[in-house]
Amino acid sequence: MAKTLTQEFVKGLWEEIPPFRLVLGLCPTLAVTKSVENGIGMGIATTFVLVCANTLVSLLRNVIPAKVRIACFIVIIATFVTVVELLMQAFAYPLFLALGIFIPLIVVNCIVLGRSEAFAFKRSVVPSIADGLGIGIGFTLALGSLGAVRELLGSGTILGIDVTGASFEPFAFMLEAPGAFIGLGLMLCVMNFIGKK
Amino acid sequence: MGDYIVLIISCIFINNVILAQYLGACPFLGTTKKMETAVGMAFAVVFVLTMAGMITWVVNTFFLNKFGLQYLRTIAFILVIASLVQFVEMFLKKSIPALYAGLGIFLPLITTNCAVMGVCLININEEYGFIQALVSSIGYASGFGFALVLFAGVRERVVLARVPRPLQDTSIGLITAGILSLTFFAFKGMI
């Protein structure tokens, strides 16, 4: 309880930034980071679900019986994921197509369920919103930066703008599955290296 | 018949759930530190995914499509999977305690395994028929198990190696997975 609201918010940006510090939610991280744009889009969708789910779980924390809490969390999360899915279909159709099945799969993203269970179920509404927002923005930053690395090396562009010039031969490898695993592995290594100092 | 064999091979090797489609990466890293846990998880997934593949197909075709409720698909599928996992857990506990002891701790984890939900959604998106959906569920699940066991084998060796400190644990795990995924790339031209 000692932490202030700002601290709850800021911890998601560095101290507990997913997926680097909390190794959760790897599937969307690996799958959608072919470009910065997709990564950030996915991050924003996840942030929305996180904040809404955290708010509702926190509001209902005295009503939900502890024994069936996981099932309740899943229904709450699934509802907000459906909302995001329909909104994206209406207002961001190209992104909706690019992210494909990974939008419905936010339901099974362990970050969202993990925050409901570990944080929102025990705390009041305002800190829960701060926590959701912090973790969500941290996740967006992580996806954006991994997306930037992969897009830069894999197609020589950032946000679709050519930055490397014609002489650069892109490694198509970085855009495929092996590149995703190795890119994330190396980023974790860099994070560990900076964190240790 | 030939089509089904092609489908199964493509599900196991070419479109491997983890190594080519990035589904189920959390249990892939979480349960592969030891061979025993990897084998337990692999069997639990094969079991649940095969059943979930069939049930979600039936729910989608005879319920959601019939009443025009496709927008409820996400909620319906996750409920089916969560209750199926719960049911399987209770059933095994009562009737096959030996198997329950083996799979027990992995079963609840399967609810949030995106491979299960992902394959059910792929089956629907590809507009498979019932038998095709069943075959692809079995294929994807075996591919998941196969990758899990292979990776656990490699990882047990990596533990013995001297790894630079920042690369330890998950980091080296991901890089190993990347190399494994690269070897699976060789299957791409097969069909």
Task: Explain the overall architecture.
The complex is a heterodimer of chains A (197) and B (191). Helices cover 66% and strands 2% of the residues of chain A. Chain A is mostly helical and 197 residues long. Chain A has one domain (5-196). Chain A has a two-stranded antiparallel ribbon with strand order 1-2. In chain A, a hairpin with a 2-residue loop joins strand 1 and strand 2. Chain B is 73% helix and 0% strand. Chain B is mostly helical and 191 residues long. Chain B has one domain. The two termini of chain B are 16 Å apart.
The tally of domains of chain A stands at: 1
Structural class of chain B: mainly alpha
What is the β-strand count of chain A? 2
Bin the strand percentage of chain B.
under 5%
Sheet-strand content of chain A, in percent, reads under 5%
> Helix/strand-derived class of chain A?
mainly alpha
**How far apart lie the N and C ends of chain A?**
28 Å
**What is the alpha-carbon Rg of chain A in Å?**
18 Å
Across the major sheet of chain A, the strand order is 1-2
Largest β-sheet summary of chain B: none
Assembly type of the chains comes to heterodimer
* Major sheet size, sense and barrel closure of chain A: 2 strands, antiparallel
